[in-house]
Amino acid sequence: MSDASRLEQPDRPWVMRTYAGHSSAAASNALFRRNLAKGQTGLSVAFDLPTQTGYDPDDEMARGEVGRVGVPVAHLGDARALFDGIDLAAANTSMTINAPAMWLLALYVTVADEQGAPREKLAGTTQNDIIKEYLSRGTYIFPPGPSLRLTTDVIAWTVANTPRWNPVNICSYHLQEAGATPVQEVAFALSTAIAVLDAVRDSGQVPEDQIGRVVERISFFVNAGVRFVEEMAKMRAFGRLWDEITRERYGVTDAKQRRFRYGVQVNSLGLTEAQPENNVQRIVLEMLGVTLSRDARARAVQLPAWNEALGLPRPWDQQWSLRMQQVLAFESDLLQYPDLFDGSHVVEALVSEIVDGARAELRSVLDMGGVVAAVETGYLKSALVASLAERRRRMEAGNDVVVGVNRFTETEPSPLTASGANHIEQVDPAVEHAAVESVRAWRARRDPDAVAAAMDRLRADAAGTANLMPATLECVRAGVTTGEWAGALREVFGEYRPPTGLSAAASAGEAAAGSPLARVRERVRATATDLGAARLRMLVGKPGLDGHSNGAEQIAVRARDAGFEVVYQGIRLTPAQIVSAAVAEDVDLVGLSVLSGSHLDAVPAVLDGLKAAGRADLPVVVGGIIPADDAETLRKAGVARVFTPKDFALNDIMDELVTVVREANSLA
C-alpha cells in the first residue's frame, strides 16, 4: 500500500491526563506519581469543594465535603505536599479551579520558586472561567464584575511573568452537561471569551499591540459526547469562529496566535449507573470526536473512568482510561495521516450549520450587552434549563436511546460491580478530621504580624485598582489560608447568587389525556384535595457545597409541570437554611440533591433539624450518586426514598413522590 498520503512526520500525541485528587495532599501526590510512572504526560488536579469555593476545612460550610471530590489545599504547606518530588519546571499541570484561581496559581508559583524552577518555564492551565460557574457548576463566590477583574489580573500577570502558562481555560464542558446544544455550547463559550478579552483590553494592563500574546495563551476546555461525528464538527466550527473573532474583533494578524487550542474531558454525566460496563465504549467513542480530525484535534485529553456514575474512581480505573488513550495514540495509525475529513461534503455542511447557528446566538448575547448581562438577566441559565428539559423528554420518550437505560435493559450481573462498595474509591471519614487539625496547627505556627500585614494589603488593593496577584503572592508566603484569602475578598467584593433559571424555563404545557404526565397531575390534584390544600408544595434543596444543580433543576421543572408548587432557592445551602425554608413555606415534601458524596453528613443534619423544629413527620427524599449501602443507611435514618442516576424517568419519580406524600399522611 502506498504511503503517499501519510504525513512525513507523524503528529505528536496530545497531552494525556487523568483528573485526580482526593483525601489529602500527600495521598494525591502519591497518586500523581503513580500515574506519571504509567505514562501520563500531564497532571490534572481535582480540588475538593471547600477549596473550590474558598473555605478552610474547619469552616461550617465545609462539613462533610473535605477531600471528597478532590484534594483539599488550605495553605502553602498543602501545596508543597501536593507537588512534592514533582519537577514543576518540567511538568504540565492543569488545575480545575475558578473563583480562587488566582490563589491556587499563587500557591503553585510559590512552590515552583522554592524548587528553583524558573517562572518562564512553568507550563499548565488554570481554568479560571467563572461565567460557566454561574450557569452550570456552581463554584462561584463573587459577583461577575469582581470575578472578571480577578481573571483579568491573572491574565495580565501571567503574560508578563509566566509566558507559557494558560491563565484561563474557557470552559464549555459543563455547559453541555447543563443542556447546551452544540450551537449553544459554541456560542456561549465564545461570548465568555469575548468578555474576558474585552476586559483585558480595557484594563490597560496589557499594551494594545500585545493583545496577540493574550489571545495565544487563552485555551478552551470542551465536552465530547457520544455523538462523535457531531462533536468533531463542533470542534471544527469552534476553530473557524475563534479565528474569525480574534482576527476581526481584536486585529490579531499572526495565524499561530489565533489557533484554537483546547483540552477535553469526555462526557462524565453521560455515563450510566445501569450496565456501567457500557461506559467503556462510550468513553472510547467520545474520545474519537476530539482526536479524529487533525485540524481540530485536542491538545490535551482526560478521560473519566467507567465507574464515575457510581462514585470516585480507584487508581486501577484511572489506569484503564489512560490506557485507552495510549492504545489510540501508539497502537493505531491515527497520528500518521493528514486531516481525514478535508473535502467531505457531509462534514462541511454540518460544520457550516453549527457555525451559522452559533454566530446568530452569539450575536443575540452580544446585543443584550454581552455574557455578563445575559447571566444577570437569567437568559443563559433559562436557555440551558430548557434545553436540558427537552433532552430529558426525548430520552424518556425513547427518541434518544441510551443503551441499558431506556432500551436493551435486560442484563447479566456485571463482574465489574460484583465486589459491592469495593468497586469505587472510599474516602476515609477521618480525612476531614485530619484536615481540620492540620489547618489549625498551620495557623498556630505562623507569624501573625506577617499574616495581618498581607491581609491588610490584599483588602486595600482589592478596594482599589491594583493587580491583585502581587498581594496574593505575599499572602501565600505569609501563611494565609484559602478561607482567609477568599474571606478578605468576600468582605470587599461581596458574594453572589445568580438566577436559578426555573422561572423562565418553558413549561411542558397541557399533557395529553391519559399520558404519564397527565396521570401524575391528576394524582397531585387529588392528593392536594384530600389534604384540604390548594396545591401540594415541595422544597427542592441543595445542601452543602455541591454545585452540580442540573438534576435538582430538572426535578424542580418536572415537579412544577406535574402540578406541585415548587420552592427552590438554588445551591449551597446549610441544613439549617433548608429546614427553615421547609417550615416557613409549610411544604408537604422535602427533596434533597447531593452529588458530592457528602450525603451521609448532609442528609442526617436535615433530618435532625426537622425533628428539632417539630416536623419529624415531613417526608424527605434524596437523589444523587449514592452507593447501595449508603442508600440503606439513609432509609434507616428516616429517608422515605432514595433515587440514583438509574432512576431516569422523571414522570415515574413524580408519581413516586405523590405516593410518598400520601404515605406520610396516611392516605389510602
UniProtKB/TrEMBL annotation:
Residues 535-664 form the B12-binding domain. Its cofactor is adenosylcob(III)alamin. Coiled coil: none annotated. Keywords: Cobalamin, Cobalt, Isomerase, Metal-binding. The keyword NAD does not apply. It holds the Pfam family MM_CoA_mutase. InterPro entries: Acid_CoA_mut_C (IPR006159), Cbl-dep_enz_cat (IPR016176), Cobalamin-bd (IPR006158), Cobalamin-bd_sf (IPR036724), MeMalonylCoA_mutase_a/b_cat (IPR006099), MMCoA_mutase_a_cat (IPR006098). Belongs to the methylmalonyl-CoA mutase family. Heterodimer of an alpha and a beta chain. This is Protein meaA.
